[in-house]
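Give me the 3D structure for Phosphodiesterase.
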Amino acid sequence: MPNVSTLTTEDPVLLVQLTDSHLFAEADGSLLGLRTADSLQQVIDLVRAEQPQVDLLLGTGDLAQDGSVAAYRHFRELTGSLCARARWIPGNHDHVPNMYEAAVQSRLLDPVVDLGNWRITLLHSNVDQKSHGYLEDSQLQLLAQSLSEAPDLHHLISLHHHPVPVGCEWIEPIGLRNASEFWKVLDRYPQVRGVLWGHVHQEFDQHRNGVRLLASPSTCVQFTPASPDFKVSSEAPGYRWLRLQPDGTLQTGVSRIPDFVFEPDYSANNY
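Predicted structure for Phosphodiesterase (271 residues):
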């Protein structure tokens, strides 16, 4: 059963996405020379300054780089300062059993949440020890059930892997391998308003058959858009906010840490 909020169907919903934080068990763990816990904390501080009331916080995968329980507990502790309802989904770097251990006595891994006039469905697209994504039959069935049982709500779907090309040649092979099956389900339900994912460490905002397609910056290192090969940009870490209106319209934007200076250290390429 979905987690039902106290928001009414007349209220807008403010959602914040934090993605690809790549935390380590050690608080000073770094990725390509960037301390990922420090950059996540700066992003959280930015969210706190800009978003006084967050209705749902989504962690859309690769929360940990090393898959350790300690890294997930650290993510839970840091994001808990926002005092928001939260949900997590795993990415290709995550270790699902350890995520569940860190999420004990919580609803962090519940797949469906109803907020206001919206339903958010969260899908696991991770494949153990692989970079690409795949939705198992159970996940496609969950998606169809969630959509079919709430025809009067507007729907936002979230997963880790990109279900459409994002314009980076090296990233395309590590997207969602059975995207056609995903779209076969979604295309049957006109109440779908948006699809949101992580994984690509960059902004993406397009439309497909009236559905908003969104990807977001990482809270740590960023990938250079339109690059044919693996390349990290000097852009600042950030987050995406989404305002889900009762009539089904969706406003969204990306905010990044100001005055952030970073040059990737490729000699420490531990991505």
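DSSP finds five helices and 16 strands in the chain. Let me know if you want a second pass.
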